[in-house]
Amino acid sequence: MAFLTRMLLAFPTSGSSSDAAADARGDIYDEAVEDIPPWALSAAIKRWGKGDVPDLRLGALNFNFAPGPAVLLAICKLELADFKAQALTIERLLACVTHERAMDPTLISVDVKSEGGRVLSFSPRRM
Prior knowledge:
Elements: H1 2-10, H2 19-32, H3 38-50, H4 69-94, H5 99-103, E1 110-113, E2 119-122
Antiparallel strand pairs: 1-2
Helix pairs in contact: 3-4
């Protein structure tokens, strides 16, 4: 919340500046980025302040004002993209079998969940 408060105080916002409006605005931003790590949020706010935002396909961006919650979330996701790719690589590596198990002649059966949540079972064919 500290990062959001700092951003909203540093950049002017449109609309009412009453306490109730500020609280509501803070709540909306908080809900938009609730699952974003603080380091990614901080980096996204810094990018916005520098105007270092690639094309998000969200229309024209005005860096004189605070970004909307959806724009801020999109920038946060840009910050997280490389780390998510690395996490996927690590998860795949951790799912590998050891060399000893791969050389073991007993069958290895693998259960994989489909996108629909169904468990699919795979096993090697015998020839």
